[in-house]
Amino acid sequence: MPSPPPSTPYFSLLLLLFSSSLIRASHGGGIAIYWGQNGNEGTLASTCATNRYAYVNLAFLYKFGSGQTPQINLAGHCDPTSGGCTSISNGIRGCQNQGIKVMLSLGGGVGSYSLASQADARNVADYLWNNFLGGTSSSRPLGDAVLDGIDFDIELGSTKYWDDLARYLSDYSKRGKKVYLTAAPQCPYPDSHLGTALKTGLFNYVWVQFYNNPPCQYSSGDISKITRSWSTWVASINSEKMFLGLPASPAAAGSGYVPPDVLTSKILPVIKKSAKYGGVMLWSKYYDDKNGYSDSIKSSV
Asked: What pLDDT shows up at residue 39?
């Protein structure tokens, strides 16, 4: 039988399959950003409208656990104590309509949070489900929009029961909409707070903080520490995707800033070889605006 001419659906199907294989092999990724800690970084809606980001972490729920009344802090954006943050629901839905996943980030470098027991973890999970995810509550701080998931940026407090919190949150996926779990551990492996939680294999995206940690970050032209640490994380953690967490400008962190040209020409070609590569996480939207970091690297990520 003679081969079908190029205009037939058969040829189109082959071309589609070939193109798909190339896309998979390229290990292309997206950019995750933290938003919420500077009132001068623009609205959530404008953040997603830039078309720079695939994931947005709302920072932070900084107080929770151990019997405390949970509190969210979005810096100069709104005042949650007076119900002033409910209007962010429109921004959340706008981001999601563009295919951008929006998570609530727990913790941060400053706050009052800790888990005292498994029961405490259950209570926190219930609160998160009812107030930010698919449950119901009369006091939803961000309004009625349903977030895509919960981000663990745990840097203080207890080192126990975060795995229980992850399991309880993951169980809510059985009720309908998937609850994504993400985490931002420090690059020294294993992370002192999230090590046990990450071993559950329940986290979809892990954006490791390769900054403010001299043993495993970039410095003065030396990429060996950051690439070696990346290899350890990729080999040790069972997650859908791993992300390289970086400061978006020199002012965004005490140390570990990677110039965009170094990232795109030296570091990304190495780490993108991993099938788990998911992209780059940046702290934060405010610093990205100031430095134009995501615009400099977007085509290479």
From this structure: 96
